[in-house]
Amino acid sequence: MAQARDFGFGTQIRKSPYFDATLRWGARAFSVYNHMYIPRDFGDPEQNFWNLVNGAILCDVAVERQVEIAGPDAAAFVQMLTPRDLSKMAVGQCKYVLITNAEGGILNDPILLRLEENRFWLSLADSDILLWAQGVAVHSGMEVTIREPDVSPLQLQGPSSGQVMHALFGESIRDLRYYWLREMTLDGIPLIVSRTGWSSELGYELYLQDGARGDELWERIMAAGAPLGLKPGHTSTIRRIEGAMLSYHADADSGTNPFELGLERLVNLDMEADFIGKAALRRIREEGVSRRQVGLVIQGAPLEGPNTSFWPVNEAGARIGKVTSAVHSPRLEQNIALAMVSAEHARIGTELEVGTAAGPAPARIVERPFYDPKKSLAAA
Questions:
Q1: Are 101 and 279 within 8 A, CB to CB?
Q2: Are the CB atoms for 239 and 45 separated by under 8 Å?
Q3: Could you give the 3-state DSSP secondary structure of residue 215?
Q4: Model confidence over 84-107: pLDDT tens digits?
Q5: Regarding predicted confidence, which is higher, 380 or 280?
Q6: pLDDT (tens digit, 9 = 90+) per residue, 36-75?
Q7: Of the candidates 82, 67, 20, the residue with the CA atom closest to the CA atom of residue 214
């Protein structure tokens, strides 16, 4: 069994409440996300993928830090942060949102949870939105309190995750709808449970509200799931690229706008409410974009792993963009990728060339997502 001393961890990067449990259950390597260690290796990543899509995996995603926005003006303040219209968002509902800056660039793409009429959580991708929100609040004139609560999510994902949740919580869990949440307890452990996750599969997130009980929660879930084939795991790069799910800093950053990503559905420029970046996004919509995200199938031998740099995308010898995320899908038996290319070349069927780590390879623009485009698995 690996121990913390085997990895050379320091104190400046935080450990999750599940850290010791993940070591016991086979975590072999970690990366850093939101200033915390996240397990990224439980063995063969292809086997992790099959465990996910054929059964269920439990993932430590405590790095998805929560920004809590509470107070009399919480709803108005949250709306100011995002171009998505929240006017009909109910208590108990979750929404995928974008946080934009004054230029319309994306600062984060979190899940927003509405826990109470005047209390929200932003469940973050990898950027410092706590500091952004606190800065925005300083001169906003709004009455809000913004903090990072003691909340650490786990993801239980895969087609068998519903059975595991039934074993844990009983019949009542079956009517929890996609992108809704519920406050629950498990053996007295305080949780928020939502039908969300970063896998494009049926799944749940369990938001632990008492960090002292992380080890207990992990072991309780694994014990209930073992007879159902539950495995420890990590978020699957293969599955998230199949589902065309964004990885912040790879597929989007503060210089990327929603229209380049085809995320117009998350931008309402006609609503009365103002939000940061509204004028810029209106201008971008009117002028059009110079580049667009596309899906690629890359020919050649199976990629040995995900890309670790932005590979050039060329057309007739001229560079027209970059691959942001690439991997071999064993299910599709193809090398698949997300890329950002100049808009005039972003047509389905366009033949291109990618400068992979192994050398130039032919590629073709295809529809994305690559698998289950209607998200029917996750919403089942």
A1: no
A2: no
A3: helix
A4: 999 999 999 999 999 999 999 999
A5: 280
A6: 999 999 999 999 999 999 999 999 999 999 999 999 999 9
A7: 20
How long is the chain?
380
* pTM, full prediction: 0.96
Tokens 């994902």 correspond to what residue? Answer: 157
Reported confidence tier of residue 2, pLDDT bands at 50, 70, 90: low
Task: State phi, psi for 333 to the nearest 5 degrees.
Answer: 55, 45
Nearest Cα neighbor of 106 from 274, 228, 249, 254 is: 254
What are 231's two structure tokens?
Answer: 């495995």
Would you say domain 290-380 falls under CATH 3.40.50.20? Answer: no
360 by DSSP, 3-state: which?
A: strand
Q: For residue 5, name the pLDDT band (cuts at 50, 70, 90).
A: low
Which two tokens mark 129? 């939105």
CATH number of 4-64+151-240: 3.30.1360.120
Instruction: Give the number of other Cβ atoms within 10 Å of residue 298's Cβ.
Output: 24
* Ranges of CATH 2.40.30.110 domains, the chain: 290-380
CA–CA dist 341, 363 (Å, integer): 13
- Residue 215: how many other CB atoms lie within 10 Å: 14
Q: Report the first-to-last Cα separation within the chain, whole angstroms.
A: 37
Structure tokens at 108: 């984060």
Q: Which amino acid is at 207?
A: Y
Where do the CATH 3.30.1360.120 domains begin and end in the chain? 4-64+151-240
Q: What pLDDT does 16 receive?
A: 97
Bridge partners, 353 (sequence order): 314, 362
317 CB-near residues (< 8 Å, 6+ apart): none
